[in-house]
Amino acid sequence: MHVAFVHRRGFGQFAALAAQLAQAGNEVSLVTETIDQKIASVRVVRHRAEAGPRADPQMARHMATPDHHARIGHRVAETFDAMARQGLVPDIVVGHIGWGSMMFLKDVLPRVPALGYCEFFYRAEGADIGFSPDDQPDLDTRKRLRLRNIAQLLSLEAIEAGISPTHWQRSLYPADARARISVCHEGIDTALFRPDPTASATLPDGRVLNAGGPPIVTFVARDLEPYRGFPQVLAAAAEVVRQRPDTLFVFVGGDGISYGVPPPGGGGWKDHLLKSLDIPRENILFPGAVPHSVLRQLFQISAAHLYLTYPFVLSWSVLEAMACGALVIGSDTAPVQEVIRSGRNGLLVPFFDTDALAEAILGALKNPEGHFGMRLAARRTVERRFKLADSLDRQQNLLEKLMGKSLHRNANVGA
């Protein structure tokens, strides 16, 4: 079977599935703008990258992003048309629908079944927008958000089915579309992400951390910004260090803006917040982005792992931390509530309540043995609901159902 994947930034959420299919002897292609990794035996077809949304005084209001998505969709369609003329017609296409890549797929390959990755449907209420009390959407914002969903709505109308990683993310989509969207996470390799009492982590500056030293509290985000609760975590860290000066906080992530807006005056949130916060710098480490192997080791030695998020896309990192047996202290927001039951497999606190967060951290540091059961339950949660082998099996079953054909299969990985 020939399975083609579509994603702007490389394999993304499809990496494990693409590798599994290729290893089993299926023909696998990736249509993309840029490539993030190499997978053996996978054909990579790059299409020309389109410049981002452009300011055009002649363009209707808020149409810059839909225009950008349409241009991306044209590039992908041209690429599949060229592939088809060379005899490279896939048996099924799996693609991310968020950036327009799948908009015109059915115009090129009308008889090829398509599965869309449904990551996040933008809404003016009930998700990230308006979650912060000082960020209430005006009429202009509501119109912009509605137009931003054009590419997804057009794609959903044409493709056979969709897939979302969590039930909450699926719930954001219109009711008529939800009927065709299955819930299946990409999966966590629980054989790799596992507890290891002997682990140590070497940071980029050469510093070595281990569980036998000062208690380590970890925080991970693509970028250190409000969407992932960085201001609240940093403020709580200051209080924890005041009461427990032996504690070391490790903040993993970049200093850019992935989601939301920059701080007043521009720049990054880290520097902006540290200007007004009284916390000894020897108690906080900012290693930037670290290799995935180091991230795993940090989870394994963490006395507590902090995961706060707006009602937004659930990060892989929280599930990887849980698989490593970390005690996760998270926000009581919908994406986190789907995987953590407070007091059973982790702890939840109100997103904006820094006092409650600091109290939960101090409690974890004071009584680590008392939270051991939660750590075990956290790993069991991932093994039961997000184990890579099971996710791959469900994904392949869905592909076979849509194609009406069987894939070549190997024994699953990540058991």
What does this structure look like?
By secondary structure, the protein is of the alpha/beta class. The chain has 2 domains: 2-187 and 387-403, Glycogen Phosphorylase B (Rossmann fold); 200-385, Rossmann fold (3-Layer(aba) Sandwich). 36% of the residues lie in helices and 17% in strands. The chain is built from 15 helices and 15 strands. It has helices spanning 15-23, 64-85, 105-108, 139-148, 150-158, 167-171, 175-178, 230-243, 269-274, 292-301, 316-323, 334-337, 354-366, 372-385, 388-403, and strands spanning 2-6, 27-32, 42-46, 92-96, 114-117, 161-164, 181-183, 200-202, 208-210, 216-223, 248-254, 284-288, 304-307, 328-331, 347-349. The chain has a 7-stranded parallel sheet with strand order 3-2-1-4-5-6-7, with helices on both faces. Strand 11, helix 9 (269-274) and strand 12 (284-288) form a beta-alpha-beta unit. Helix 8 packs across helix 13 (354-366) and helix 11 (316-323) packs across helix 14. The longest helix is centred in the first third of the chain and has 22 residues, at 64-85.
